[in-house]
Design goal:
Helix content is about 60%, strand content about 0%. By secondary structure, the protein is an all-alpha fold. It has one domain (about 5-55). This is DUF2892 domain-containing protein. InterPro entries: YgaP-like_TM. Pfam families: YgaP-like_TM.
């Protein structure tokens, strides 16, 4: 799995997941709380299959060339 979730998107995903879990806990909706796990996981591993399916890559990989 190649990284396709950028750092800013990673932080937003984790915050959105925590918000979903919070709303689910507040309104006693287990399905909504369980749904919050998905953005947290995709943010933690920095890979999202939906991003790959649509061809979006938020990671900017800076390759350092070795001039030795």
């Amino acid at each position: 799995m190649e990284c396709n979730v950028g750092l800013t998107e990673q932080k937003l995903r984790v915050l959105a997941g925590l918000a979903l879990i919070g709303f689910g806990a507040y309104y006693n909706t287990k399905a909504l709380a369980a749904l919050g796990i998905i953005p947290i996981l995709t943010g933690m591993i920095r890979y999202c299959p939906i991003n790959q399916a649509i061809g979006y890559n938020g990671c900017t990989s800076k390759k350092v060339e070795d001039f030795t």
